[in-house]
């Protein structure tokens, strides 16, 4: 009960802050990722706001809720068909400090709860990142840092590195790890992007699965290459369409020591997504 009250308080605090700020956005995204024997359907709601609290410091807060539904091919995974619904709630708080016109430091702390149906204190974990951006010239900047992230399924520390290059006033190129992007805007309303992203997540199970050496979590990860299109349909409203393919997709059961105890062997699969965003 205390945990549910805490989560509710996070939502209330975020909504209160949104009302107090001029710069905020709200979005809902839906995507489907079918594979040969398992289909993954995800719904994601995001609320974000940011404020420049001084000439050098900007804070950003992003609250996100994700629901994942997993549909198994009938008869293929009889022992695991109850593993069909998962939830994640996380609140990312970022501080950006401008040391100079060319050097910035970004620090993010992301408390998160990842659970199946019943929320418990053990479902809580903390992610985060630290990154320095250096502007090399008028068109090029480099980002270097480290993060505790779930892009490989379980939370792990990884290095981050990217190079951002403004090709011209319509195109920009981001090359790095874990995200790369080539974007192009033919006018102020349309943005086309080609992306490549390492991404993943994990969820605690309500009960240990004794038949697979006491599995306590499910993890999933993949490398996603996609073509995205965003359209500014009105002053504050945007729609986003996404189509792509998941490579090296993994869906596993692991124990408390993060040892893999079962591999669903999902294989590759395509991805389709649609979203709507209000931005002010």
From TrEMBL:
Residues 1-20 form the signal peptide. Residues 99-279 form the DUF6268 domain. This is DUF6268 domain-containing protein. It comes from the Bacteria. The keyword Signal applies. InterPro entries: DUF6268. Keywords: Signal.
